[in-house]
Amino acid sequence: MLQSLSIRDFVIVNQLDLEFEAGFTVLTGETGAGKSILIDALSLALGARGEGGVTRAGCDKAEISAIFAITNNLEAKQWLVDAEMENDANELILRRVMYADGRSRAFINGTTVNVTQLKELGELLVDIYSQNAHHSLLKLATQRNVLDNFGGLSSLAMQVAVQYGTWYTLNQQREEAEKNASAYADELADLRDKTRELSQIVISPSQWDELQNEHLRLSNGASLITGGEECRELLSEGELSAMRLLTQVQHKLQNLREYDAAIAEATETLDSAIIQLEETARFLNRYLQRAELDPERLAALDSKIQNLHNTSRKYRLKPEELVDLLTKSQLRMAELELFANDGELAKQEAQALAAYMELAKKLSDGRQSAAVKLSTQISAEMQRLSLSGGKFKVALTEQAPSQYGLEQVEFLVAGHAGVTARPLAKVASGGELSRISLAIRVVTAQKESIPTMIFDEVDVGIGGGVAEVVGQLLKQLGEQQQGDKILSQRQVLVITHLPQVAALGSHHLRVSKSLVNEQTLSTIAVLDDEARVQEIARMLGGIEITETTRQHAKEMLER
Fold it and tell me: Under a CB-based contact definition with an 8 Å cutoff, are residues 474 and 441 in contact?
């Protein structure tokens, strides 16, 4: 749900901060006052393509920020999780900055994003229905989703898509195997030889390190033994060994301690050093007892290392990288062995296709039934919306199996009796399109997830009782009811010039413009009860408002 919208230096808006409520909100104002500015600004925050000239005269940039509560919008929350932009506040902040030179920047929860990302998320938050704005219902994909949601078929449609993916993968594998059978057979033979060779010699990176360390030790065995014996002699065995000299120093210091206790610190340090030297001497004794020359083991290591180097040069890899080559070769070999068994692959493909067709036919049956009901209900609503004789039809056109099923779903509309039904995307009149969209949304509202809907020009070309019907439908769209109980509220924001529609709004905003410092500025105000009477009276009576007009306006609001 849209909670607030902040606009800075946009077209003829200096600074505007609006708070929004759930339910049916109307937006009114004099012609030319800038009623479309709010929708234009919000559209940019939702990812609409920016155009030049939107910054207020004399300003470097325009800024639009929209805050949404998304506690119950599971699709938007999942989008944020997938994009790693979620927060713990169940709140979403969209921000768009438009510069005077035509550049723009977009942000989601403070993170810089591209406009495509902003648009993807925006389509999960708001639907805007107007002649010029983005209209998701014009997309065939949206029409298909509307039908599936209405018929309770969304889960089945997802199963169909998954099963199609399984069949398509197997189909591609079989065709590839048939097309490249000879090449695959040769590759498989080569892989078998390669894996046999590598399996006999390949070691892991850690084993390669151990092998090199052992080879280094054995290669220098004589030096290690000779050097170790020399160190032992210097340390503890010789006449002038370090241990003998330090022991002499130790005795002298102990005698000197009797004359000055401060020397105790030196004796303690020396005692510790002697202990360390004794440990070193014991280690050298143990090491030299174990040390030996092993020419046979050294020769075996030389041979193994040489074989590894030869093999790595053959495949242009480092010795420690051969293990990855072996793993990849084994995986590819397993894949090719499946291809070689074309009978098994064809069997799996046939089973997957049969499973897909079973699900797809079930989906087709459900769509046929849902299409009839949806067509009938929307056609009935159209009669109430000054589209007498108009018809709505959900056309299901058979198509080749795809992830979307066995048919293409398309909404066809005939605005009046005797008119040929055409695709919804080709309906010419903006007002007609908006009213048809309204009829669709009223019928399908309880099964749709878009929480905020904005309608512009829904009342073009109508008046009188039909205008009141439009208002009632919009109010109904903003409330989900069960009997007399309102279960939940959506947001429905409507720009209207009809008092019959405006009087039915739960909330009322008025747009006005004025001249400030020789600049035309637009403002939007939230109207209280008294101001609403005055605004409805203006819409009823024009320039000169009489007491009778005010009374009429008051009656309309009370009713």
Answer: no
Cβ-Cβ contacts under 8 Å for 112 (sequence gap 6 or more): 105, 106
Cα separation, 257 vs 266, in Å, equals 10
Strands 491-495 and 452-456: parallel
Inter-residue contact 359 to 367 (CB < 8 Å): no
How far is residue 551's CA from residue 173's CA, in Å, rounded to a whole number?
77
User: H/E element holding 124?
Assistant: none
DSSP state of 404: T
Q: Do residues 77 and 70 make contact, with C-beta atoms less than 8 angstroms apart? A: yes
Q: Where are the beta strands (DSSP E) in 57-131?
A: 61-69, 91-99, 104-108, 111-113, 126-129
Cα 143 to Cα 139: distance, rounded to the nearest angstrom: 6
CA within 13 Å, CB half, 274: 16
Which residue, 407, 449, 432, is CA-closest to 123? 449
Q: What is the C-alpha separation between 413 and 433, in angstroms, rounded?
A: 9
Per-residue confidence in pLDDT tens, the chain, 559 aa? 899 999 888 888 888 888 888 888 999 887 766 677 888 888 899 988 877 778 888 888 999 999 998 888 888 888 988 888 877 778 899 999 999 888 889 999 888 999 999 999 998 898 887 655 446 678 899 899 999 989 999 999 999 999 999 999 999 888 877 776 677 777 778 888 888 888 888 777 788 888 888 788 777 777 888 888 888 888 887 777 888 888 888 888 888 888 888 888 898 888 888 888 888 888 888 888 777 777 787 788 888 888 888 888 888 888 888 888 888 888 888 877 776 666 777 888 999 999 999 999 999 999 999 999 999 999 998 888 878 888 999 999 999 999 999 999 999 998 788 788 888 878 756 667 777 877 887 788 666 667 888 887 666 667 777 788 888 888 887 776 545 555 556 788 888 888 988 898 889 999 888 777 767 777 888 899 999 999 999 888 766 788 888 898 898 888 7
Burial annotation 457-488 (CB, 10 A radius, 16+ → b, else e): bbbbebeeebbbbbbbbbbebbbeeeeeeeee
Nearest to 137 by CA among 487, 312, 378, 311: 378
Residue 294 has a CB neighbour count (10 Å cut-off) of 13
Helices and strands in the chain, H and E counts: 18, 17
Q: How far is Cα 410 from Cα 142, in angstroms, rounded to an integer?
A: 10
Crossing angle of the two packed helices 342-384 and 430-444, in degrees rounded to 10: 110
* Site of tokens 């199963």: 159
Q: 342-384 and 154-179 helices cross at what angle (nearest 10)?
A: 150
Identify whether the C-beta of residue 552 lies closer than 8 Å to the C-beta of residue 535. Answer: no
pTM score: 0.59
406, 399 in Cβ contact below 8 A? yes
CA–CA gap between residue 478 and residue 493 (Å, rounded): 9
Q: How far is CA 298 from CA 192, 287, 397, in A?
A: 32, 19, 77
